[in-house]
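re: the backbone from monday

yeah here it is again, tokenized this time
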């Protein structure tokens, strides 16, 4: 994937319904926790760990956080639109 190209994961998030978005947010948070633990173990085991491995782990954490924020924004928007529809329907 080149810089500026849309993420396949982001496209999937944009197509999800509210229930799937909630599940995706939880899985992204769990994955972030696993990556943080992996990074901590890597640094604790080998403080002179290869910079490339550390950079990859940090880049993955940034990507996961961005996907989580995108999913949360999408879920919030869907919830607001649903509330507006329900309000108009009453």
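seq for it, each position gets an aa:
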């Amino acid at each position: 994937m080149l810089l500026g190209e849309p993420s396949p994961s982001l496209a999937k998030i944009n197509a999800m319904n509210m229930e799937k978005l909630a599940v995706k947010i939880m899985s992204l948070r769990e994955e972030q926790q696993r990556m943080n633990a992996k990074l901590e173990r890597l640094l604790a085991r080998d403080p002179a760990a290869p910079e490339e491995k550390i950079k990859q782990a940090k880049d993955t954490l940034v990507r996961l956080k961005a996907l989580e924020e995108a999913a949360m924004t999408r879920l919030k928007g869907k919830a607001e639109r649903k509330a507006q529809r329900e309000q108009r329907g009453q």
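The chain has three helices and no strands. The mean pLDDT is 87.
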